[in-house]
């Protein structure tokens, strides 16, 4: 298959310094054994609604984004990540050190640590911050700089490469944070704001619309990674990784992750991880230190020319086999949601845990059949 010249580029903006390396931060779980688990949603409810900045709430068609920006900006942070000397991971994200920094000598680049600039979102008043896996992965230290310029060292609570999410913790209380929104509250064509630190410029706000709610990337899909994203035309560039995508009420609907571009710079296509995925994965990381995945127990493929997903093999004694799914079934719906592609199934499963019950509608020999499946568990990606 011919490869597209477009690059799905991550937003990690990186710089290089000759300095001593800092001690590596270790992923950890900071909830105490025996203490009741408090979800991120519950932590948001503990603190009363934040001040509304004396701005009128938007009504009807609103052409000013002052309310949303004022409400969300304090909850978006600048993240400075330091990596080991000679770190080569930049090339994964479309950065080439000597071309981007022609004034830096090869000796400095090989010996000095690499420092990356990205963004993050405070999601609880007690200091939990979400950013991207590709920002936190292999970082020797992470510094979180608030909108008011206060700075804190961050600890990694957990990371998940398949959804590109990392959960961090800073030691501070009564922080401004962004409340979770709901993807069902926005539609294609609705206004959204992207907030982050592109090129190191803190608290930068850009506006756009929701261009698509479930944009599927086949390359991500084939690797078993999260492949369904919110698409927007809000301008994003290097350093926007981990920043906020908010609705006109200033509520979080996504975490910014990448752009589709032929040049490495913004070309009109930006993407964010849906907030429902962010909430589920971050709660998993908070409770377990890792994401807990559900498995349907099927090998599947897209059905060219028609919506739906073909089951071409079942995992022996897997969840689907136990629930009555058969080879050559075409999955059309899960829990009343339309299934058009493999990416839709991945998007559905990433929101579930092992033991959850789902309802499927499949086409079997020309007839619509309903099945009930209790999901199994998996440590890896869904088989395809």
Automatic annotation (TrEMBL):
<dbReference type="InterPro" id="IPR001478">
    <property type="entry name" value="PDZ"/>
</dbReference>
<dbReference type="Pfam" id="PF13365">
    <property type="entry name" value="Trypsin_2"/>
</dbReference>
<dbReference type="InterPro" id="IPR051201">
    <property type="entry name" value="Chloro_Bact_Ser_Proteases"/>
</dbReference>
<dbReference type="GO" id="GO:0006508">
    <property type="term" value="P:proteolysis"/>
</dbReference>
<dbReference type="Pfam" id="PF13180">
    <property type="entry name" value="PDZ_2"/>
</dbReference>
<keyword id="KW-0732">Signal</keyword>
<dbReference type="InterPro" id="IPR001940">
    <property type="entry name" value="Peptidase_S1C"/>
</dbReference>
<feature type="signal peptide">
    <location>
        <begin position="1"/>
        <end position="18"/>
    </location>
</feature>
<dbReference type="InterPro" id="IPR036034">
    <property type="entry name" value="PDZ_sf"/>
</dbReference>
<dbReference type="GO" id="GO:0004252">
    <property type="term" value="F:serine-type endopeptidase activity"/>
</dbReference>
<keyword id="KW-0378">Hydrolase</keyword>
<keyword id="KW-0645">Protease</keyword>
<dbReference type="InterPro" id="IPR009003">
    <property type="entry name" value="Peptidase_S1_PA"/>
</dbReference>
<feature type="domain" description="PDZ">
    <location>
        <begin position="285"/>
        <end position="366"/>
    </location>
</feature>
<protein>
    <submittedName>
        <fullName>Serine protease, S1-C subfamily, contains C-terminal PDZ domain</fullName>
    </submittedName>
</protein>
């Amino acid at each position: 298959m011919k490869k597209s010249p477009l690059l799905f580029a991550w937003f990690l903006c990186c710089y290089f310094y000759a300095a001593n390396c800092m001690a590596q931060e270790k992923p950890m779980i900071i909830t105490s054994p025996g203490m009741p688990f408090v979800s991120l949603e519950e932590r948001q409810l503990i603190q009363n609604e934040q001040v509304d900045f004396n701005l009128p709430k938007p009504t009807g068609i609103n052409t000013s984004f002052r309310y949303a920006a004022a409400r969300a900006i304090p909850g978006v942070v600048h993240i400075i990540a330091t990596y080991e000397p000679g770190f080569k991971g930049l090339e994964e994200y479309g950065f080439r050190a000597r071309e981007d920094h022609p004034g830096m000598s090869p000796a400095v680049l090989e010996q000095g640590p690499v420092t990356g600039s990205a963004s993050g979102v405070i999601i609880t008043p007690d200091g939990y911050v979400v950013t991207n896996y590709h920002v936190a992965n292999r970082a020797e230290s992470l510094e979180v700089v608030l909108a008011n310029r206060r700075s804190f060292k961050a600890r990694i609570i957990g990371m998940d490469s398949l959804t590109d999410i990392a959960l961090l913790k800073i030691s501070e209380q009564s922080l401004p944070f962004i409340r979770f929104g709901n993807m069902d509250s926005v539609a294609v064509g609705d206004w959204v704001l992207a907030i982050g630190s592109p090129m190191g410029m803190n608290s930068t706000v850009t506006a756009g619309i929701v261009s698509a709610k479930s944009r599927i990337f086949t390359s991500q899909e084939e690797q078993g990674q999260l492949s369904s994203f919110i698409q927007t035309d809000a301008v994003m560039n290097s350093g926007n990784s981990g920043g906020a995508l908010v609705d006109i009420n200033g509520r979080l609907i996504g975490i910014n992750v990448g752009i589709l571009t032929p040049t490495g710079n913004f070309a009109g296509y930006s993407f964010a991880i849906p907030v429902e995925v962010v909430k589920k994965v971050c709660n998993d990381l908070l409770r377990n230190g890792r994401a807990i995945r559900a498995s349907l127990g099927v090998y599947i493929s897209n059905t060219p020319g028609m919506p739906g997903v073909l089951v071409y093999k079942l995992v022996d004694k897997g969840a689907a086999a136990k629930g009555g799914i058969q080879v050559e079934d075409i999955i059309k719906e899960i829990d009343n949601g339309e299934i058009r592609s493999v990416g839709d199934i991945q998007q559905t499963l990433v929101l579930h845990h092992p033991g959850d019950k789902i309802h499927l509608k499949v086409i079997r020999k020309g007839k619509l059949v309903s099945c009930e499946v209790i999901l199994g568990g998996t440590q890896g990606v869904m088989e395809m």
